[in-house]
Amino acid sequence: MFKISEFSKISQVSVKTLRYYDQLNILKPDHTDKYTGYRYYTADQMFQLNRILAYKELGFSLDQIRQMIGEQIPLEQIRGMFRLKQNEIQSSLDKEQARLTQIKERLYFIENEGENPHSHDVILKEVEPQLVLSYRRKSSLRQIPGLFQQLDAQLGNSVHSSSPQIVLWHGCDGNENDIDLEVARPLALEIRSHPPFTVKRLPEVPMMATLIHICRTTSPCTASTELALWIERNGYRIKEDEPRREFCLPHEKSSDPESHVAEVQIAVVKA
């Protein structure tokens, strides 16, 4: 048998760590002298200690290691713990890979700034549910301001100048005068509405790719195309049956009354 100091030298694990493992019931000494309190270990306990160190290297917590080593749990449950750890590490790798891709793209744009001066930052975020008053119809881009005028007339004093204009793009069959779109304003509380206006709640979206740009809602812009390209390049795909959203605020530094600072939002899932 080995004293704790001897076992520490052989295993190259500190005495402090061995004592801590003893306290946590992860690795108990084979024998503790009841008079002196000295801890003694056997050579066979090297195998158990090495397993503990191996599990730590894999990223398991000490509490998880205690369950796998010290308790008589079924083999299938141990397999399940390893599968969970595998999924956790894979998710972390995916996030780091996505971050690495963004860094490479940003570095490329920095090094080739003259070739791409209008690049935008794309952010992935979770979007919470939003209560709105909306007005949906098939229309054209140039009619959007008029749709908001009708919507704001319905809201009356409930609408604030700082409240964003929301445009939901449901689809287009190829005719620019026949775009299926929906204009909306956020609501703090439920209000009574009458057709064609609807009080509804925009659903929560767990993962939304977003891009902020300056645009005119009455004119086509490239922001959505740029965002779609980013989604494809970075291993995501657009979520079906979820309209593209655009949140618009007046661009105060512009002399153009139709100029907006807008955030394009496209719901995505991992490809």
From TrEMBL:
Q: Which residues form a coiled coil?
A: 86-113
Q: Where is the HTH merR-type domain?
A: 1-71
MF term (GO), any: DNA-binding transcription factor activity
Keyword field: Coiled coil, DNA-binding
What PROSITE patterns does the record tag this protein with? Answer: HTH_MERR_1, HTH_MERR_2
SUPFAM superfamilies xref list? Putative DNA-binding domain (SSF46955)
- Top-level lineage group: Bacteria
**Entry-linked SMART domains:** HTH_MERR (SM00422)
**Protein's name in the database:** DNA-binding transcriptional MerR regulator
